[in-house]
Amino acid sequence: MAVALALLAVMAALSWCVSPATAELTRIEHPVKDGAPLRLLVVGDWGRKAAYNQSRVAQQMGEVAEEMEIDFVVSTGDNFLEDGLAAVDDMAFHESFVDVYTAQSLQKPWYLVLGNHDYRGDVLVQLDPALRKIDSRFICMRSFIVSAGIVDFFFVDTTPFQLQYWTDPGEDHYDWRGVAPREAYIANLLKDVDAAMKESTATWKVAVGHHTMRSVSAHGDTQELLQLLLPVLKVTLIKTSAISSPSVKHSNMRRNIRRFQENNVDFYINGHDHCLEHISSRDSPIQYFTSGGGSKAWRGIFQENEDELEFFYDGQGFLSLELNENKARFAFYDVYGEALYHWSLSKANLLQVQASARVTEE
Ligand SMILES: *[C@@H]1O[C@H](CO)[C@@H](O)[C@H](O)[C@H]1NC(C)=O
């Protein structure tokens, strides 16, 4: 009861706090307890009417969520397989979501992006607030921001980036209402994401999308995202010579130092490949996490890429994330609730690394 009331309070707050952050992106202020760390679970590629271990993953999510007392859940997309939702009263909404993630601890807001399979149904259904009348947890938008105290989450609609879905869809039909033409949609989206990231003063910046940037599994890297989205997320490194040169006026210097602090997204979290992965970027501080193990997995495909593989599990599971002012802690869990991998990053160390990278630039 208390949980239900708390959730209602969050939902009521949401309807007040939703405001356009920039021209286009909606910002949701997620209420946080002062000083308490933010805790959440991330799951992707899950909606299969409880089959392919979806229910086992859901059960373990419930247990971990209870132990951690999570604030919310993030979904990296492919929420309903194989073809999204057909209508607001599609029973798959119940069979794959409402009736599967039943634990009390999971009765929290779910912030969801769309995956490519969600675009194969009626794409507008999952975006329709009417679904929240059936289950108030379901908060799905194309691209939006969730501000939760020290963390800003930038949710990015990545399906339209993949050119092949437009030019060579094969048997599949994609519902492009609201995003065509592709080039204009992507250009506007990148502009809005860039502006929102520059505006952000959060300690941690986390980008979430469905598609992989780096992956060693079946889909591999998504070239369009590496070319178009990644440069927006990256630290804007400037040469220290530009700062220290006597010819640079003081105000310019200040602007340049500010530039150095722009956009630097800490983590990109995605689904799409049905596995769990952590990959480190070799030329930026960005860390890539794949959490796409919500149901069908075990593809048995491994292909290396240019970045550094830290962890790969080809089976089902999910990701937990805990963030405070100084530390981000990640853990991957399997269908037994076993923690397969722990990884953490200290913000102080990261800033040191960035500072020394800047010095050695010279
Ligand atoms: C369910 O999980 C178990 C344990 O990882 C695995 O052995 C089994 O193959 C999985 N079932 C499916 C359908 O993936």
Topology:
Blueprint: H1 2-17, E1 19-20, E2 26-29, E3 38-43, H2 54-68, E4 72-75, H3 92-98, E5 110-112, H4 130-134, E6 138-140, E7 144-148, E8 151-156, H5 163-167, H6 182-199, E9 204-209, H7 223-228, H8 230-233, H9 240-244, H10 250-260, E10 267-270, E11 276-280, E12 287-291, E13 308-313, E14 318-323, E15 327-333, E16 339-346, H11 347-360
The structure holds 2-acetamido-2-deoxy-beta-D-glucopyranose.
Characterise the protein shown here:
- With 362 residues, the protein is an alpha/beta fold.
- 29% of the residues lie in helices and 22% in strands.
- The protein has eleven helices and 16 strands.
- Helix 3 (92-98) links the parallel strand 4 and strand 5 (110-112).
- The protein is globular.
- It binds 2-acetamido-2-deoxy-beta-D-glucopyranose.
